[in-house]
Design goal:
Layout lengths: L4 E4 L2 H7 L5 E6 L8 E2 L2 E2 L4 H18 E11 L10 H11 L3 E9 L24 E8 L16 H7 L3 E3 L15 H11 L5 E4 L6 H8 L3 E6 L2 H12 L17 E2 L9 H18 L1
Parallel strand pairs: 1-10, 1-11, 2-5, 2-9, 6-8, 9-10
Antiparallel strand pairs: 3-4, 5-7, 6-7
Helix pairs in contact: 1-2, 2-3, 5-6, 6-7
This protein binds S-adenosylmethionine.
């Protein structure tokens, strides 16, 4: 599996095809399991199954990262009334597979237009907190230092100073391009510049419309964007094609087409459906 590709396939299957220790930075935002309507993916699993599935993906990323490689996971607690701290649970799952949690960045979006879910209005009996932010949890594999040539660091002093303040005020992406939850470019630009060198390999295994791939190409990093949806993968290809390298950034190739990788073990995949089918039939079979 070569890099500088947009791949339509299952996150874990594709990651497992990468050479061991070949990726420097993973950046992703997985489905949050809140019933969002993605093309071709059903975002409402049992919580246990959801975590188990993602844990397999974290494990596959761990294998693919170089020692000192980083993983930036964008995640947020879900539901206002029944607060579910999935960022805590997923942080535990990611560290369980071997990563070290090294930083917590607060992405302040201020998305609240008209507030309505106050809970107990003007009473302390049961008020609701409505988060206007998400987290980017940053993990390392092995050593905290990422080896690289200082000449390939492209962050300015001003950017470094500003990004190392972990409170990032960035509005959500307005141009959704038909996707329910794309990253804003600025969030990814900061992560890429702060945590990687020019020429590094960056992977987004839930790549959607290819924000990570487009920013990587613009800043002279190699990329791999994986998504199970053909529709989003085509959007990602179009985006990466129109991403011009910044002045001084090395030219990174663009693929001619989306690469199809069959197979997979994510929820909704054919394999998973077959597994479910077999489980359903099992008591019947045993009775025979
Ligand atoms: C939160 S969105 C990511 C959006 C992306 N950050 C962007 O900027 O467009 C999660 C994505 O995961 C994809 N997805 C769901 N199951 C998948 C799987 N098993 N393998 C790869 N991608 C999957 C969905 O199609 C969806 O686009």
């Amino acid at each position: 599996m070569a890099v500088d590709r947009i791949v339509r396939g299952d996150a874990r299957t594709v990651l497992n095809r990468l050479p061991r220790e070949s990726v420097h930075l993973g950046i992703t935002s997985p489905p949050y399991n809140v019933g969002i309507r993605y093309a071709g993916y059903s975002d409402d699993r049992s919580y246990a199954e959801y975590r188990r599935w993602l844990k397999g993906v974290w494990r596959a990323l761990y294998r693919a990262l170089v020692p000192g490689g980083r993983f930036a996971l964008n995640i947020a607690p879900t539901s206002i009334k029944n607060f579910r701290p999935i960022h805590h649970d997923l942080a535990r799952d990611v560290t369980d597979v071997g990563f070290t949690l090294r930083a917590e960045i607060l992405w302040y979006k201020q998305t609240m237009g008209r507030r309505t879910a106050w809970g107990s209005w003007k009473s302390p009996s049961n008020p609701h907190v409505i988060p206007s932010w998400e987290y980017v949890l940053v993990f390392s594999k092995g050593p905290m230092r990422l080896e690289g040539d200082r000449a390939n660091a492209d962050i300015t002093a001003k950017e470094f100073q500003s990004f190392s303040d972990a409170f990032w005020h960035i509005p959500p992406e307005r141009n959704r391009r038909g996707h329910p939850a794309p990253f804003p470019d600025e969030l990814i630009r900061r992560l890429v510049k702060f945590y990687s060198y020019r020429g590094n390999v960056i992977v987004d295994m839930f790549g959607g419309t290819g924000t990570v791939a487009a920013v990587a190409r613009r800043t002279g990093r190699h990329y791999l964007s994986i998504d199970s949806s053909r529709e989003y993968s085509e959007l990602a290809l179009a985006r990466v094609r129109s991403a011009s390298p910044e002045p001084g950034a090395p030219i990174v190739p663009i693929p001619a087409q989306v690469l199809e990788v069959p197979g997979g073990s994510g929820p909704g995949s054919a394999l998973r459906r077959r597994e479910k089918e077999t489980r359903r039939q099992l008591p019947h079979r045993m009775a025979q």
